[in-house]
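Can anyone check this?
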Amino acid sequence: MQFLHDHGLRASISENISRFDRREIDEDGLRRAAVALVVARGDYNDSAHVLLTLRPLTIKRHANQYALPGGRLEEGESVVEAALRELEEELRLTLPQSDVLGVLDDYPTRSGFAITPVVVWCEETGRLDPDPDEVALIFHIPCEELDGEGIPLFMETEHSEHPILYSELPVLGHRMFSPTASILYQFREVALRGNDTRVAHYSQPEFAWK
């Protein structure tokens, strides 16, 4: 299926998320964090893409891992405020709260966070100027790839009764693991397809615990 970056897709995503019964995690010991799931226009056409980053080797947490722009909440911040702030800090991309289309399920990580994915519409990214301390590379993931039948894939693990969810996206050339893979899978299922799919139970590989 083709996903054009137009008003029809924006309305469809917003409606699908508004009907979704979002689940929040409120567990002691988990720190609150938010990520921005940005739906942007492709560089060379009008197809819809999601912005994804690769974290640098020099960063303290989750080095050389795929990630959505985001980070922990500051005191007094909402998840939406935190996601938009982190997006501006990491990619120098400023988007208003009026472009927020909705919020997906919280996802608990083995590194001690409850991540809230905030879906944001972006008409034009302009020239992105990523902070090199936070971002090594930026990828534009076509929604058509997220909608592929080969997603998701699963790997058994001895650390959990639930499998590790991962994806193999052509634009990346190799595997992307949870938590990012789970969040993008739920975006596909809920925002693009209108399903009530849960992902918080899926496990993460050991290298993502740090």
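Reply from J.R.: I decoded it. The chain has a mean pLDDT of 93.
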